[in-house]
Amino acid sequence: MHEAYDFEAIQEKWLPIWDQIEPFKSGRSSDVRPKKYVLDMFPYPSGDLHMGHAEAYALGDVIARYWVQKGFNVMHPIGWDSFGLPAENAAIKRGTDPKAWTYENIEMQKSSMRRYACSFDWDRTLHTSDPEYYKWNQWLFLELYKKGLAYRKDSAVNWCPSCQTVLANEQVVAGLCERCDTAVTKKKLNQWYLKITDYADRLLDDMADLEGKWPEKVLMMQRNWIGRSTGAEVTFEIEGRAEPLTVYTTRPDTLHGATFIVVAVDSALAAELAAGSSIQGNFTEYLEKTKAASDIDRLATDRPKSGVFLERYAINPVNGEKLPIWASDYVLADYGTGAIMAVPAHDQRDLDFARAMHLNVRTVVETGEDDPSISGIATIGDGIIVNSGSLNGLSKEKAINKIIEELSAKGLGKGAKNYRLRDWLISRQRFWGTPIPIIHCEKCGEVAVPEAQLPVQLPDATGMDLKPKGSSPLGAADAWVNVKCPQCGADAKRDADTMDTFFDSSWYFLRYTSVQFDDRAFDQDEVKSWLPVDQYVGGVTHAILHLLYSRFFTKVLHDLGYLDFEEPFTRLLNQGMVQMDGSAMSKSRGNLVRLSDELNTHGVDAIRLSLVFAGPPEDDIDWADVSPSGSFKFLNRAWRVSGDVTSNPGVDFSTGDLALRKITAKSLFDISFAVESFRFNVAVARIMELVNATRKAIDSGCGGADPAVREAAEAIAISLSLVAPYTAEDMWERLGHKPAIALAGWPAIDSALLEADSVTAVLQINGKIKDRIEVSPNISDADLEKLGLANEAIKAELGGAEIKKLIVRAPKLVNIVI
RNA sequence: GCCCCGAUAGCCCAAUGGCAGAGGCAGAGGACUUAAAAUCCUCCCAGUGUGGGUUCGACCCCCACUCGGGGCACCA
Questions:
Q1: Strand A73-75 relative to strand A35-40: parallel, antiparallel, unpaired?
Q2: Nucleotide nearest to A688 (CA to C1')
Q3: Which bases of strand B have any atom within 7 Å of the beta carbon of a protein residue?
């Protein structure tokens, strides 16, 4: 009897049966299993699934299926992040509605996911572009608005000339649009912002709880991004101006070393100080030049310093010195107060500026390094404070505390914090997104759309011009945009911008608990019973944007009383990327490996196995290093084991071959441990070992009739079901069981089988191995020492040498130092 | 420039202070076969990037460096 392992037949056979059984349904009220929430980042429907999706979903599936086997009621939902630019761009290109393109792609991805045997609960899907979903975006926006966390302001914003829309700070990468790599420019616009900066401290400090549960890399990136710095604000009088000037500094200890003041050239203060003065012309010219420069130019740190002296002076509050005030582009208008005290001796940027403009340099920290005014290198380190009156002789830290105290007492300054994080700009001048539920009325101003009128639905795109032209296409949809003011009834206009799609994805994990619920965004009881997410799986590309925003929303919803937790994702796993020949797969590079081709050639299970086995999940996979045919061969081998088992289901395992039983028990133990610590590649290796051992037992050991062989084969099938569900299900049937193997339950391990009869102890002299002996695992130190010293190889090696030290670690080793 | 992570066989990767090799890929030989494929068996291969240190003992801990990957970067 040697039927062939036919992956296509197996796939076709089991898929419809699973559809009937629905082993992964998580919403049954009668379900008494403890709950677990395993979440994969939802995809953007830009086409069919690709290799990257395949890896992520294979990994998420191992985790979800494992917890189901362990007896948990696992919620493992999927949905689509279906608003966004690609749909709109495709629609423009083809002259169709973004909706049609989007939902066609969703159907395609959905059917690929089913075939890929993802253990999703299909009753919980959502699409962010459904009015039933984005209605709650609008509700949430209004909640934020009522709390003052959503506001409009005029500001010079990041503008992508190619996408013709504004971008959040987070979407600008090295001065380029993250989507299309066009150089981002600045544009003065009135836009909607969310006050994420109000949460900066909590977003930063609460990361302590995620330590060890999220990848260190992600925590570090978020810390960098929030960029909290501590220091002080110091007030300087300006000659001839009633209002003083405040600067932010991290080094108030160097206040006596300040020799000039710099204000951001594009700040209001600079314009005011320059107004009407003799240098007004120079200033304006410099300002225009700065504005024309792209971010990339402006951010280049090796650029020579430039600036204009404003012919005004500030007074140093600690020593009364007159400090010239300069305007320069190296000070940023939107960080701190937009003005700095320059301490050239101890800040490289200030020193570069001082040397370019021939300004004074005064050392106030004695660090033992060369004089900065001669070396041109600012001394940043700690040292003894000098030339600083009451601070003289102190260390940096003590001086900082003291000067803050002194300034506070006189009302001239105070301790202060600053953040790199800016408020989140959410307006987008595009069509395919959630309309902002605000109506602009000439009389009443901004008016929130009443909750009863939500959702503000997108109009049909048919006949609309969606081409990017710098203003929202919705603004031209007259029938849509013109409304009556909900407050006074006068003619008014809808806000024509749509929301950044990151808004949509910042709370979708809550909606999964109650996708049909139409009273609220989510059912609070359901959320309470499922959230926070136990395990989140997704790419590191979202390390800042999506994860930071989701954490922010969770904290806001907590504060609004809707949630009783403050962090949405308890554990996070970042999978690496799938590459080809060392670089990202792409059509233009010509190194694209099509997932569907691979699935057709090798089968779903072989591809899933290859991706899981390729290495640690967080490492990048190079498809050139992967052998799907090798995976297929292994599955074949495992599957054939099930055909060689001749005992019946239910046979008493305890009468089986002890050696094989021990291997099975150890394997199950190791596989569990490896899965729970995300070392899926190691788990697979352990399954391979078990298959090898079972093969050997069948062919040249206890034989296929031994109950231990059945025990091993069932263990193989169940553990393999995490990675290769089709093969495992078929094995399960061949072993005489009914589907679904997904619900078979993780085999119980008899702990007695985990204890070894004997272990190998190593005998060392000076740390070098001289012999190995088999001993009882329970041997005492004294007995092991005796055995070691009596050992022939050791005795021969020792000769008559004096033993200086003896280290015994029963039952593993004896080390004799001579 | 600052910060983080990594480096083990031809290749992908195991080994969480105690035997460097679990698993796989590639390669070689053999069994089976008329033959091939498939299958099965056997074999080959490094002393852990470099240099120091701690330790009875270091791939593992510490320091410095090299190379690779990533993050931040005129944020005062």
A1: parallel
A2: B23
A3: 3-5, 11-16, 18-20, 22-26, 38-41, 56-58, 70-76
DSSP β-bridge partners for residue A583 = A580
User: Are the C-beta atoms of residues A154 and A161 closer than 8 Å to each other?
Assistant: no
A813 CA → B8 C1’, Å:
24
Q: Which residues of A370-396 are buried (b: 16+ CB within 10 A; e: fewer)?
A: eebbeeeebbeeebbbbebeebeebeb
| A593/A579 Cα distance (integer angstroms) | 9
Residue A709 to residue A651: CA distance in whole angstroms: 11
The DSSP annotation for A736-761 comes to T--S-GGGS-PPP--HHHHS-S-EEE
| 0.90 surpassed by pTM | yes
- The pLDDT tens digits for A275-332 are 888 889 999 999 888 877 766 666 666 778 889 999 999 999 999 999 999 999 999 8
Taking the CA of residue A5 and the C1' sugar atom of nucleotide B41, their distance in angstroms comes to 22
Rg (CA), chain A: 34
Angle formed at CA A688 by CA A685 and CA A689, multiple of 5 degrees: 90
Distance between CA atoms of A794 and A782, rounded to whole angstroms? 17
Q: Given this model, what pLDDT does residue A301 score?
A: 64
Structure tokens at A162: 């190619």
The closest alpha carbon to A77, from A514, A554, A721, belongs to A514
Q: Which amino acid is at A783?
A: D
Long-range CB contacts (within 8 A, 24+) of A791-796: A791/A763, A793/A763, A794/A763, A794/A765, A794/A770
Reported as type and span, the H/E element at residue A247 is: strand A245-249
pLDDT, average across residues A532-540: 92
CA A303 – CA A306 distance, rounded (Å): 9
Q: What is the pLDDT of residues A364-386, one digit of tens each?
A: 998 888 888 888 888 888 888 99
SS3 label, residue A114: helix
CB A739 within 8 A of CB A731: no
Residue tagged 């990151």 (tokens): A502
Q: How far is the CA of A379 from the C1' of B73 (A)?
A: 19
CA A259 to chain CA centroid, nearest Å: 44
Tokens of A734: 């061949």
In tens, the pLDDT along A639-675 reads: 999 999 999 999 999 999 988 999 999 999 999 999 9
The number of helices, as runs of H, and strands, as runs of E, in chain A is 28, 32
Share above pLDDT 90 across residues of chain A, in percent, rounded to a whole number:
57
SS (H, E, C) A264-315: ECCCHHHHHHHCCCCCHHHHHHHHHHHHHCCHHHHHCCCCCCCCEEEEEEEE
Of all nucleotides, the one whose C1′ comes closest to residue A341's CA is B76
| CA neighbours closer than 13 Å in the CB half-sphere of residue A278 | 3
The CA–C1' separation of A493 and B51, in angstroms, is: 72
Task: Give the position of tokens 């305007």.
Answer: A327
Contacts of A131 (CB under 8 A, 6+ apart): A455, A457
Nucleotide with minimal C1' distance from the CA of A353 is B74
Residue indicated by tokens 């971008």: A167
Task: Give the Cβ contact number of residue A163 at 10 Å.
Answer: 21
**Span A619-625, average pLDDT:** 89
**Which nucleotide C1' is nearest A767 CA?**
B57
**Distance from residue A535's CA to nucleotide B14's C1', rounded to whole Å:** 25
Q: How far apart are CA A66 and CA A490, in angstroms?
A: 60
Per-residue CA distances from A232 to A258, A325, A384, A387, A395 (Å): 14, 20, 20, 20, 17
